[in-house]
Design brief:
mainly alpha
């Protein structure tokens, strides 16, 4: 049985349809890749924005905690200084201010002695 014109025509039509659908599948694949790339960029930008927001919140939290710690350290430092001064007073050890006052008094006395001697 030889090939009839209809058989050849049907086969050509089938080949053309296969080519057409293969090209359509190729275009769909390219479209899917392009969409995935576009969505990937949008997704990356969204992640970046979320990361920036988290970084800002982290910095604000650290600044708040730092301020609280500095305030507490200042309070502890003040309490230590007060207790140290109290211990020095009880032991009758002069403070820096006491020594400065005595130094000023000695200078005043030296000036008076020079005036009297001069």
């Amino acid at each position: 049985m030889g090939k009839t014109r209809n058989d050849v025509t049907e086969k050509l039509e089938l080949i053309n349809r296969v080519k057409y659908y293969a090209r359509q599948v190729g275009f769909a694949s390219l479209g899917a890749v392009a969409k995935a790339m576009k969505n990937g960029i949008v997704f990356f930008e969204t992640l970046t924005q979320e990361g920036e927001k988290l970084e800002a919140r982290r910095r604000a939290l650290i600044a708040k905690q730092k301020k609280a710690l500095e305030k507490r350290a200042d309070g502890l430092n003040q309490a230590f200084q007060e207790r140290s001064a109290d211990v020095l007073r009880r032991l009758r050890i002069p403070t820096r201010q006491d020594i400065q006052n005595l130094s000023k008094q000695v200078n005043v006395l030296n000036n008076h002695i020079r005036e009297l001697a001069g």
